[in-house]
Design a protein that fits this description.
Blueprint lengths: L2 E11 L2 E10 L5 E7 L8 E7 L2 H5 L7 H15 L2 E6 L8 H12 L4 H7 L12 H7 L5 E4 L3 H9 L4 E5 L10 H11 L15
Parallel strand pairs: 4-5, 4-6, 6-7
Antiparallel strand pairs: 1-2, 2-3, 3-5
Length: 205
C-alpha cells in the first residue's frame, strides 16, 4: 500500500481545534484523515483511536451501533489529554461499504446478528484493512500509541502492520436498548472486551 500526504488544515471542533491531515491511498484512490491534537512528537506513547467510517453512527446519530459514541468520546479524551490522534479510515460497514451495510441492516431487521448478516451477504465478519495506519502515524512522527479500543483483534492487526501499541485503553460508551444485541455479538463472536460495570451509557443520560 502506498500512502501519500495531501494537505492539512485547522479544524475547530467542540473539543478544541484539531489539525486535519489528509492522506490518499494511491493504489485504491481512497482517502483517509488524521485528526491531531497538540504536540504528538517524541518517544512517549500518544493517546490514539483508529476509527473506521460509520456514516450512520458518526453523522446520522444511529443508535444501532456504538460507533458515533466512540468517535465523540475518543475526541473528548484526546482533547482532555492535551495530545493525541484519531485516524479516520474510509472503510464503511467493517469494510463492506455503505449499500451493503444497509442490506446487512435489513437482514438484522429479520433477526440475523451483525456477523450472520455479513456472512449471508457473502462477506467475512470483518473486512477492514489497517495497513495504512503505520505510514500515516510515521508521517505524523508518532512512534507508539495508547490505543482506545475494545477490540483485541484490532490491536493484533495493527501490530502485524508495524504499529507499536504500548497499551490498550477501553472505550465503552453508548450502550442502549437498540444496540444491546449488536454489542453482545461483538463480545461473543468478535472477541471485544467489554464489561457491564465499565459502560458509560451516554444514550440514556
Amino acid at each position: 500500500m502506498t500512502i501519500e500526504y495531501v494537505a492539512d488544515s485547522k479544524l475547530p471542533m467542540p473539543w478544541g481545534t484539531f489539525t486535519m491531515v489528509g492522506f490518499e491511498d494511491t493504489e485504491t484512490g481512497k482517502d483517509h484523515i488524521a485528526l491531531v491534537y497538540g504536540d504528538v512528537s517524541g518517544d512517549e506513547p500518544v493517546l490514539a483511536r483508529i476509527h473506521s467510517e460509520c456514516l450512520t453512527g458518526d453523522a446520522l446519530f444511529s443508535l444501532r451501533c456504538d460507533c458515533g459514541f466512540q468517535l465523540q468520546e475518543a475526541l473528548k479524551r484526546i482533547s482532555e489529554a492535551g495530545r493525541g490522534v484519531l485516524l479516520y479510515l474510509r472503510q464503511e460497514g467493517r469494510g463492506i461499504g455503505l449499500l451493503n451495510k444497509i442490506k446487512a441492516y435489513h437482514l438484522q431487521d429479520q433477526g440475523a446478528d451483525t456477523v450472520e448478516a455479513n456472512e449471508q451477504l457473502g462477506f467475512a465478519a470483518d473486512m477492514r484493512d489497517y495497513s495504512m495506519c503505520d505510514p500515516m502515524l510515521a508521517h505524523l512522527g508518532i512512534k507508539s500509541v495508547n490505543l482506545m479500543t475494545n477490540n483485541p483483534r484490532k490491536v493484533a492487526a495493527l501490530k502485524t502492520y508495524g504499529v507499536n501499541v504500548a497499551e490498550r485503553v477501553p472505550l465503552q460508551v453508548g450502550k442502549n436498548s437498540h444496540n444491546e444485541q449488536y454489542l453482545a455479538t461483538k463480545m461473543g463472536k468478535l472477541g471485544h472486551m467489554m464489561t457491564e460495570e465499565h459502560f458509560v451509557n451516554d444514550a440514556e443520560k
